[in-house]
Write a structure and sequence with these properties.
- The complex is a heterodimer of chains A (321) and B (554).
- By secondary structure, chain A is an all-alpha fold.
- Chain A has a two-stranded parallel ribbon with strand order 2-3.
- The N and C termini of chain A lie far apart (40 Å).
- Chain B has 21 helices and 3 strands.
- A two-stranded antiparallel ribbon of chain B has the order 1-2.
- In chain B, helix 1 packs antiparallel against helix 16 and helix 3 packs antiparallel against helix 4.
- The chains are: A mainly alpha (321), B mainly alpha (554).
- At the A-B interface, strand 1, helix 3, helix 4, helix 5 and helix 8 of A face helix 13, helix 14, helix 18, strand 3 and helix 19 of B.
- Strand 1 of chain A pairs parallel with strand 3 of chain B.
Chain lengths: 321, 554
């Protein structure tokens, strides 16, 4: 019993180290892949680490219109995202945080991070931040609704409310390929692109304030606070990669109780991340960013896909007896 | 536990019966903190105020229908007077709704248990609670009186109306529950949740936003009660327990953070002379304590994890997911759509809370009075502080609270067993503290020390001129501007091009037209000449004699 607990804690610590350590690398690899696909050499994959290091060493410039809470928001956004990152299984199931990893808690933690970022945008009272926050509010409404509808399908198929339990059921049970999960995959990928602020919803590499969403809220932040916000965005990306991988591709993932299964799980996780990065880079170079008011339509379709996934599940259960 | 106390006053020969069973005790516990906070507050307490409070308590501890109706009408009449003191226009509407609620409720309580009685109960108590489609009065009437009374109306009065639904729907009529009762409650609740959350996002008046959010939370509680009623008829005690846990916990949490926010809105009004977000901004500089307390209340309103509002939301969402797991296919699809609506509303509630804090308390002041706002007085802060302190156990120990709620649930659902709560805030808080500490210490160790204050970058625009000390107020997002994307994407679709509440368009406006029609008819009769009146009397006489003659002739 104690051994199991110790192993679970070890797995959690390893998971935390990998998630927190590899988050900037992911951004670097994607940037490199995108540049290569566009025929440019691109920055080295370690560039995000250097950027973070540079930002941390700079003195933050606090706008004179900022309030006392200016410093709170980056920490709030980071804390919520980092807690969510600790809940999502990466290479193994049965981590010490597994009982906490209820899907709705997970959505709530991302809601905290989003709220803190929106407040950071409104903090100094300048136009771009407010506009970005308003747009983010709009996107969040649809993405949260789609995500909850998807949770319904996952929980009903997986018979478990936690991400860990859903993944375990999907790995061990013979779920097979169902239409329902196909719709769910399409929908969750679209939600993931929205939540992580990638093309076609938002362009993290954009430089025009008018077109920004996520970056617009951080315009008045600098130094270590900006580094914290950037790092939060990186963590969010790796968390979403791991989440989609855990739910839709849980095969070969290890169990915390048997350490021998960890190396294979680790390799497999790296493979999944790599595949995800390649897919994302390919998708991003072949798509253009949408107009802001096209996004609700796109997310409306996502929500519809989520509901269809539930409907197909009910129909399948009815037919199956 | 259920000793009945009989008072010699009341109906002749019967008296008034008072009793305090677990359900009454729960609602007394919900009412007590907000009453305490309001009493501490600076508002003047008129006799009407005390009658209002007494009415609410009487409803909750009534053991017979007469006492309950007496309490209900005392509460309605007193709150009408209090609304009238604040603003005359909504008071008339409010009186109409109160009379309608009473007119539905009195027959409902004395009719034999059954479909008609429950329908009337739902109309009467639902109108009082602000359940769609009879909710349109609430965002108008609740902001009208002074802050303390608004707080009690939103936090307490709607709860007592819901108490009446629970008392009669689950306990008194418990033997004759019909399957459609739960469905009706769920549909009314879902409509309230969606409209309340959307309007909370679009309104600009602080107290109106809070009142719209009350509509949303009443809807959430109604959804929980509806699922519990439905599950009880289907014989699923576990699901009924889960849904009731969510509904009752939501009532407790809402009874703490909503009065807190209303009292805070009153302090903002006192400090700046307005509650319109478009005239505020940067209040947290002058009112740091009030701003922090409001932030805590908003975390509850937005149902964020580690806040008081999350555990109820969590339980309700799981109850909806569990209801979608079984049953016939139409109901399951309906529950899937309900989950979508709840998700939409949860994100809207977060955006509305962010908007309240971000536009009102952060940013630059939009007026000189907002810039010169001073901290609220101590009495207000103490009252709000009590409510905020009581939010802490709700936020961090919902599991213990659910154990305490078990007697109530066992009373409402026969055969209910305690269910463990899947959401554990304390380990989550520990994890969050560890990562925050790590980030803080890491930045301290490796990062640069110190900060420098500079003019905001603002996309490269220059410093504002000296005669605009806070810059041009028009260059920051207003409350309307912040909500504009949402307004364009879904506001128009649900509220129509003029963004008027459907409750007004489909219920109040037709009523208004009927009223005008009858007023005109009455006016025409009043204006009739003496000849027309004589002719009318003569015609009536002839008709009467004719009718008499015809019946006699047979």
């Amino acid at each position: 019993m104690i051994l199991r607990l110790l192993l679970a804690i070890c797995a959690t610590l390893l998971h935390a180290a990998l998630m927190f350590g590899a988050a900037p690398l992911l951004i670097g690899v994607i940037a490199k892949l995108r540049a290569r696909l566009l025929g440019r050499p691109g920055p080295p994959v370690t560039q995000p680490y250097r950027d973070l290091h540079k930002l941390i060493r700079k003195t933050p410039l606090i706008p004179d219109t900022a309030t006392q809470l200016y410093q709170i928001w980056p920490f709030a956004a980071f804390t919520a995202t980092a807690t969510a990152a600790l809940l999502v299984p990466s290479f193994t199931f049965g981590m010490a945080t597994a009982p906490l990893s209820d899907f709705i808690t997970f959505i709530g933690l991302f809601a905290i991070a989003r709220g803190a970022t929106m407040l950071a945008g409104l903090e100094t009272g300048f136009g771009f931040g407010g506009a970005g926050a308003g747009r983010d509010a709009l996107f969040s409404i649809f993405s949260e609704a789609s995500l909850l509808v998807l949770v319904l399908a996952f929980v009903l198929i997986g018979h478990h409310p936690t991400i860990d339990g859903i993944g375990t059921t999907f790995r061990d049970g013979h779920i097979g390929i169902s239409v329902s999960l196909g719709f769910a995959l399409a929908a969750i990928l679209a939600v993931a692109l929205t939540e992580t602020g990638r093309i076609p919803v938002d362009n993290p590499a954009g430089h025009l304030e008018l077109a920004m969403v996520h970056e617009a809220m951080l315009l008045e932040y600098s130094g270590r606070y900006l580094a914290l916000f950037h790092y939060t965005a990186m963590l969010r990306l790796i968390t979403w990669f791991s989440l989609v991988g855990t739910i839709f591709c849980p095969f070969f993932m290890g169990d915390s109780a048997s350490p021998l299964s960890w190396p294979f799980g680790l390799l497999f996780w790296l493979g999944k991340l790599m595949a995800g990065m390649v897919a994302l880079a390919l998708f991003e170079v072949s798509t253009a960013k949408m107009r802001v008011f096209r996004v609700p339509e796109y997310l409306g379709v996502t929500m519809l896909l989520g509901i269809l996934s539930g409907v197909f599940l009910f129909v399948a259960e009815r037919l199956g007896g | 536990m259920t000793n009945t106390l009989t008072l010699p006053i009341g109906l002749p020969g019967q008296g008034m019966h008072l009793a305090c069973d677990p359900l009454s005790a729960l609602f007394l516990c919900i009412l007590a903190p907000q009453m305490l906070a309001t009493m501490i507050g600076p508002d003047k307490k008129s006799p009407t105020f005390w009658v209002f409070g007494l009415g609410m308590i009487l409803i909750v501890i009534a053991a017979d229908a007469f006492t309950l109706i007496l309490g209900f009408e005392l509460m309605s009449a007193a709150s009408w007077l209090l609304v009238l003191q604040g603003d005359r226009r909504p008071a008339t509407l409010y009186a109409g709704i109160a009379i309608f609620a009473g007119a539905c409720l009195i027959p409902a309580l004395f009719l034999p248990a059954g479909g008609i009685a429950f329908g009337l109960l739902l109309l009467g108590a639902g109108a009082k609670a602000g359940l769609a489609p009879l909710h349109a009065w609430l965002p108008r009437a609740h902001p009208a009186p002074s802050a303390g009374v608004s707080a009690l109306m939103s936090g307490g009065m709607v709860k007592t109306a819901l108490y009446v639904i629970i008392r009669y729907g689950f306990v008194v009529m418990g033997g004759q529950i019909q399957p459609w009762w739960g469905g009706a409650l769920i549909i009314a609740g879902a409509a309230s949740v969606l409209i309340g959350a959307l309007r909370a996002m679009l309104e600009t008046e602080l107290k109106t936003i809070l009142a719209c959010s009350t509509v949303e939370h009443v809807g959430l509680i109604a959804v929980g009660l509806g699922i519990a009623l439905r599950a009880r008829t289907l014989g699923d005690a576990n699901l009924a327990t889960l849904a009731l846990q969510g509904a009752l916990l939501c009532a407790i949490a809402h009874g703490l953070f909503k009065p807190l926010l209303f009292i805070g809105a009153g302090a903002v009004k006192h400090g700046t002379g307005t509650t319109s977000l478009d005239w505020l901004g940067g209040l947290i500089r002058g009112m740091p304590k009030l701003g922090t307390l409001m932030l805590a209340g908003c975390a509850g309103m937005a149902a964020l994890p580690l806040g008081p509002g999350f555990a109820p939301e969590f339980l309700l969402l799981h109850a909806v997911i569990a209801s979608a797991g079984t049953g016939d296919i139409i109901a399951r699809i309906g529950f899937t759509a309900l989950l979508g609506i709840l998700g939409l509303s949860a994100a809207l509630a977060l955006a509305a809370a962010v908007r309240m804090i971000g536009i009102g308390f952060l940013g630059r002041p939009r007026t000189l009075r907002a810039a010169a706002a001073e901290e609220a007085d101590r009495a207000t802060l103490i009252g709000m502080g009590i409510l905020a302190a009581l939010c802490v156990p709700v936020a961090l120990a919902p599991g213990i609270l659910l154990l305490l709620l078990q007697p109530v649930i066992a009373m409402l659902v026969p055969g209910a067993r305690p269910l463990p709560l899947g959401y554990q805030p304390v380990p989550l808080l520990i994890l969050a503290s560890i990562v925050t500490a790590a980030a803080f210490l890491g930045l301290r160790k490796f990062g640069a020390r110190g900060e420098r204050e500079v003019p905001a970058w603002n996309g490269g625009f220059g410093k504002p001129p000296a005669w605009l000390p806070f810059g041009n107020p028009a260059t920051q997002a207003s409350a309307t501007g912040f909500a504009e994307p949402v307004q364009r994407a879904i506001g128009f679709a649900i509220l129509g091009p003029k963004t008027i509440d459907p409750g007004e368009v489909f219920i109040l406006d037709p009523l208004r037209r009927v009223n005008i029609f009858f007023t005109r008819a009455a006016e025409r009769i009043r204006r009739a000449t003496i000849r027309q009146r004589l002719a009318f009397v003569f015609a009536a006489l002839v008709m009467f004699l004719l009718a008499l003659g015809l019946t006699q002739g047979q």
